[in-house]
Amino acid sequence: MGSQWKALSDDNRRGILLLLKNRNMTPTQIAEHFIFTLPALSCHLRILKDANLITEKKEGKNRFYSIDSKGALDMIGFFEDMYNFKLNSLKEYVENKERKKKWAEEVFSVHSTNG
Question: How far apart are CA 53 and CA 17, in angstroms?
Fold first, then answer.
């Protein structure tokens, strides 16, 4: 299996994925949206397929490419984990800040009424 991150590092491959998000397409249909040759497109498709980001289905003489939902879900899971951690950290930070603020208000209000 190739690296999903490496496969996504190329603008053209990201563009191919964006095309495939709406429908299955043949290489010829995909190529209509780019200025590179069919052999170059074949290379991009192989990299995306090796990274489990797209699937290939042969129907008669045609090959149809589509998004590999499992590979895409793996990447989505990574970002959910990463951002969930950051959101949890932010929540903890805000809650701690609020606790400190309330504590300071209590301490200083006690001192000002006693003084």
Answer: 8
- Give the pLDDT confidence of 44-98 residue by residue, as tens digits: 999 999 999 999 999 999 999 999 988 877 877 777 776 666 666 666 767 777 7
CATH number for the domain harbouring residue 12 = 1.10.10.10
Domains held by the chain: number:
2
Q: Show which of 33, 50, 67 is a domain's final residue.
A: 67
Q: Is 58 in the same domain as 79? A: no
Alpha-carbon gap, residue 18 to 90, rounded angstroms: 32
State how far the Cα of 99 lies from the Cα of 45, in Å rounded to an integer.
53
Task: Provide the CA 9 distance to its chain's centre, in angstroms.
Answer: 12
Which candidate, 40, 43, 20, places its Cα nearest to that of 30?
20
In contact, 66 and 57? CB cutoff 8 Å: yes
Give the closest residue to 17 by CA, choosing from 69, 78, 59, 57.
69
